[in-house]
Design a protein that fits this description.
Elements (H helix, E strand, L loop, with lengths): L11 H12 L10 H13 L4 H5 L1 H18 L21 E6 L7 E7 L3 E2 L5 H15 L1
Antiparallel strand pairs: 1-2, 2-3
Length: 141
Amino acid sequence: FNFDTSLTPYGGDLELINHLSIELALPRPHPMTENAMVTHAARLISGSNGAIMEILPEFEYFRDIVFHFKHAVSGATSTPDVEDGYIWLPTDATLHWSVKSISDENKTLQYHVTAFRGHLQEFVDPVAAVQKDKTQQNAFA
């Protein structure tokens, strides 16, 4: 899962969903354009299309574990500010997944993940991640 670099599925996410769709006999988009695969993968990974979750319920747990781990090492806060004395419960950490269009003009779907009283679970800024990749590539050049 590429949650730490993009909230839109790409690369390995698309390959994973394509292979799972073949292995589990799930319908795949036709024609299989990149945009159709991104939409298909976003809906399957988020659970808005529950086909994978129905057949492989452990997929949901694996997705959430990976998301929580990548969020934890990102340095971003996962909880909103709350009043003094508020006690978080384990159920507050449950991730709620949906998909939304990036914008009115760009209909590409991206994950919308909330937890802790509906707090949006945001990751490292994708622009910063791209700049970090460029810096690492230059260091090896």
